[in-house]
Amino acid sequence: MTRPPTRHEEDVVHTEHLADERLVDLTLDDDALAHEREHLASCAACRGTLADLTRVVDIAREAPTVELVTPGPGLWARIVEDLDGSDVGERIPPRDAAPASLQPEARPDVAVLPAPAESSSSPEVVVPLRREHRDREHPVGRVRPALTWLAAACAAGILLGAGGVVVADRLQSGSGAGIDVIRTVATAELDTLDTRQRLGTATVSERAGELNLAVSATELDRGDSGYVEVWLINRDGKRMVSVGVLDEGATAGAFPVSRQLLDEGYVVVDLSREQFDDKPQHSGDSIVRGLLRTPV
Amino acid sequence: MTTTSLRSLVAPPPRDASPIVRWVLSDAPPETSDAELMQRVADEDRDALAEVYRRFGPLVHTIAVRSVGSHHDAEDVTQQVFVALWRARHSLDPAAGSLAGWLATVTRRRCADHHAQRSRRERDERALSVPSEVATGAQPEDATERVVLARELDALGEPRRTIIRMAVVEDRRQQDIAEALDLPLGTVKSHIRRGLLDLRTRLEEVKA
């Protein structure tokens, strides 16, 4: 009941403002009672609130068409750089060893995302262990080979679920065999969304410290004049990043990916039909999709 | 191979947990509130700014992408917005409005600046008879309010998120929702009331 009180005590029954809560009911479900209708007819304030709420409902109804797009992995480093450039003298020294400008260009994945809040209330259950591990023990900007990362992730059992153990075993058995070995980190079967028809596969492999996502499909209907874009979607179903675009006419392609992406939960491979329409976000028209899993 | 909503197919909830158990679990982690985070930024806490970026980067970036079109330009806008937040930190007041409202408003204005600059540039190019390939004539999309509400809905805890979705997006009646979720009608009603009034507040904070 946040509406202001009525001005005249004497005509309380018919001119009392409708409670906001009641106006919500009227917006969605309920028919107004006779005296409510009468009040609405004469009260611009209540009509205004009703109009506002109707607008909220109209806009919220379209919310499912909005896919939130996460900025690229290098952006936070650029923001930090910008702040450090403009804030000299009014700021405490940088908390991390290397300034953003010195971070290795080729490995934007290592340096980029901001550290999670240090707050002690941060929920242990949902924050991956590795995150703290990374930020405390590996200062931003230091390059760590993928093997270290994989081993650490697997030791913590958090890479892609329980299957991580398999990868850890492989790493041990393969240690000393030289780094230029291609290892399969995870695979996904790519199915159509409606009929679950298997149309292809995706494989994340690791070679010399770099991760690569290869996709291939038997057929891809890219529509009349469109192209096919490859995405990694987060487990949360809300965030996604574009990994690349398949060559014209191709049904396969390979793209470098950052291990941090996988680590942050971007483990759903998605191929979408896109048009040349100046809309960089996902078209919503997915051809195939699959969840990356560690090989059994 | 039809178009299918992304949301419906990504990350299905675990089958073994009952809805109630999931709600209890997802309600459990008491993370720092947005207002608290805003106060920490106002108090010069750079780690809090990083957390704001983590939490609201997609909100800002999505508004920008939809407005300016290219990812590259959108990232420029996103960068400007977070730099502006830090520069304005001393004037931040959690009592005066939410972070989401502040960020959405500034993003919308930066996008408008971007479009103004672009059309000035195009006009200048035309005046100099430099052929311009950019002039599409298309009206930039202002999805600010839609994106803000989408993000708000996503950020709601359960069971409010499910209830609001059913009431608003699926347009189901409150009684129907109560039965489907096996919750008391009063509970459903109060989630819907509180939820929609909060959404209205959020929308009001987004200024032109």
Keywords for this entry:
heterodimer; A: about 300 residues; alpha+beta; Immunoglobulin-like; 3 domains; eight-stranded antiparallel beta sheet; 8 strands; elongated; B: about 210 residues; mainly alpha; Rna Polymerase Sigma Factor, Chain: A; Arc Repressor Mutant, subunit A; 10 helices; about 0% strand; globular; transmembrane (chain A); transmembrane helix (chain A); Anti-sigma factor (chain A); membrane (chain A)
Descriptive notes:
The complex is a heterodimer of chains A (296) and B (208). Chain A has 10 helices and 8 strands. Chain A is of the alpha+beta class and 296 residues long. An 8-stranded antiparallel β-sheet of chain A has the order 5-4-7-8-1-2-3-6. In chain A, a hairpin with a 5-residue loop joins strand 1 and strand 2. Chain A is elongated. Chain B is mainly alpha-helical and 208 residues long. Chain B folds into 2 domains: 111 residues, RNA polymerase sigma factor, region 2, helix turn helix motif (Rna Polymerase Sigma Factor, Chain: A, Orthogonal Bundle); 53 residues, Arc Repressor Mutant, subunit A. Chains A and B meet through helix 2, helix 4, helix 5 and strand 8 of A and helix 1, helix 4, helix 5, helix 7 and helix 8 of B.
CATH domain fold name of the largest domain in chain A:
Immunoglobulin-like
Distance between the termini of chain A: 58 Å
Any idea what the shape of chain A is? elongated
List the secondary-structure elements of chain B in sequence, H or E.
Answer: HHHHHHHHHH
Rounded radius of gyration of chain A (Å): 27 Å
Summarize the structure.
With 296 residues, chain A is an alpha+beta fold. Chain A contains ten helices and eight strands. The two termini of chain B are 40 Å apart.
Walk me through the topology.
The complex is a heterodimer of chains A (296) and B (208).
Chain A: H1 12-15, H2 20-28, H3 34-42, H4 44-61, H5 75-86, H6 108-111, H7 129-137, H8 146-155, H9 164-174, E1 183-192, E2 198-207, E3 210-217, E4 227-234, E5 240-245, E6 252-257, H10 259-263, E7 266-274, E8 286-291
Chain B: H1 6-9, H2 19-27, H3 34-42, H4 46-68, H5 71-87, H6 99-127, H7 144-155, H8 160-169, H9 174-181, H10 185-205
Helix pairs in contact in B: 3-4, 4-5, 4-6, 5-6, 6-10, 8-10, 9-10
